[in-house]
């Protein structure tokens, strides 16, 4: 180790440089209203210029907080850019705050383990979870222990909690409306994984949309958006080769849509001529691969921003029951 290397600045050295007391500098960095606005500005500027980083152990001892938000993600969440955009969105919300994001992977076999570890070790001030089920044991656990949390998706279990959700019911109704406007009559739905809340919302929207548009419809129960590419491709090919094949397809993710379109193409079915396909969200890559696809926007980055913002509000004392967002679909 090089003894001449400059030591990182500490709270004490920062205070000495500014000619202020350690307590004053500490409160200024925490944005205490007891410190003058100009002093807070001067302290923060000096801290940034010197590269001062608070000692997390010390912060935790003084405040009981970690200043960490944990995003607990299932490996299945990696499809259609969800994983990346959710991380970037939450990071957007944390800019300029004392909070930092830690991504915690969870096991498909034991989704409770990661949450229990975070809670029992006090590793974060709050958590964000996804892949919500109508009766979700993770939500019940977090609610019972009183840990601040927000969910990407809604439950149906009588617990009033903070959530951000995309209106998949409205998405499918809108998809069927657009397909009907193109003269299509026979629709199939490649939906989300069964058991999740948004799968129920998607199915309810499909039933309602079929009635409203007077179209025929079928739900594909042997494949879904978590299925592997080959299985989706083979399923779509089988459907396309059957008598009286569908002329309208609705998918729940862009990656699912690419696999389904590949299967339809292998059976000689041409998108835009023999059938139309609606999917969400549509990435530039999906648009490049499927230029004739009908895309509906779902902004996962915006979801992350709102979840981060709402969770910090809960940690600050706001009522979680008042922090909810259900976002309607819109064309890109």
Report a brief summary of the structure.
The chain is α/β, with parallel strands linked by helices and about 325 residues long. It has 13 helices and eleven strands.
Highlighted features:
332 residues; alpha/beta; six-stranded parallel beta sheet; five-stranded parallel beta sheet; 11 strands; 45% helix; 14% strand; elongated
What is the spatial order of strands in the main beta sheet?
2-1-3-4-5-11
Strand content: 5-15%
Q: Rg to the nearest angstrom?
A: 25 Å
What's the average pLDDT?
90
Termini separation comes to 55 Å
What general form does the structure show? elongated
Summarize the amount of helix as a percent range. 40-55%
Please mark out the parts with pLDDT under 50 across 5 or more consecutive residues, or reply none: none
**How would a textbook summarize the main sheet?**
6 strands, parallel
- Summing up helix and strand content along with how strands pair, one would put the structural category as alpha/beta
| Strand/helix succession | HHHHEHEHEHEEHEHEHEHEHEHE
By DSSP, the count of extended strands is 11
């Amino acid at each position: 180790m090089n003894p001449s290397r400059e030591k990182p600045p500490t709270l004490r050295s920062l205070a000495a440089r500014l000619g202020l007391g350690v307590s004053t500098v500490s409160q200024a960095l925490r944005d205490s209203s007891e410190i003058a606005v100009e002093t807070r500005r001067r302290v923060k500027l000096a801290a940034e210029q010197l590269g001062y980083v608070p000692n997390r152990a010390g912060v935790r001892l003084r405040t009981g907080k970690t200043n960490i938000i944990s995003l607990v993600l299932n490996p299945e969440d990696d499809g259609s850019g969800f994983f990346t955009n959710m991380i970037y969105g939450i990071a957007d919300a944390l800019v300029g705050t004392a909070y930092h994001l830690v991504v915690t992977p969870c096991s498909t076999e034991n989704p409770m383990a990661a949450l229990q570890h975070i809670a029992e070790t006090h590793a974060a001030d709050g958590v964000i979870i996804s892949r919500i089920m109508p009766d979700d044991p993770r939500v019940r656990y977090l609610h019972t222990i009183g840990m601040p949390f927000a969910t990407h998706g809604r439950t149906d279990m009588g617990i009033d909690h903070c959530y951000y959700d995309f209106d998949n019911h409205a998405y499918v109704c809108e998809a069927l409306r657009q397909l009907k406007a193109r003269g299509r009559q026979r629709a199939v739905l490649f939906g989300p994984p069964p058991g999740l809340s948004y799968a129920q919302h998607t199915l309810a929207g499909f039933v309602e949309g079929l009635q409203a548009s007077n179209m025929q419809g079928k739900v594909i129960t042997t494949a879904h958006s978590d299925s592997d590419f080959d299985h989706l491709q083979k399923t779509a090919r089988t459907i396309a080769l059957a008598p009286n094949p569908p002329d309208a397809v609705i998918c729940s993710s862009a990656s699912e849509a690419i696999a389904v379109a590949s299967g339809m193409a292998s059976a000689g079915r041409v998108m835009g001529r023999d059938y139309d396909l609606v999917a969400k969200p549509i990435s530039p890559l999906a648009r490049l691969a499927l230029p004739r696809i009908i895309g509906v926007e779902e902004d996962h980055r915006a979801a992350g921003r709102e979840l981060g913002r709402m969770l910090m509000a809960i940690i600050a004392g706001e009522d979680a029951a008042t922090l909810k967002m259900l976002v309607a679909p819109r064309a890109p």
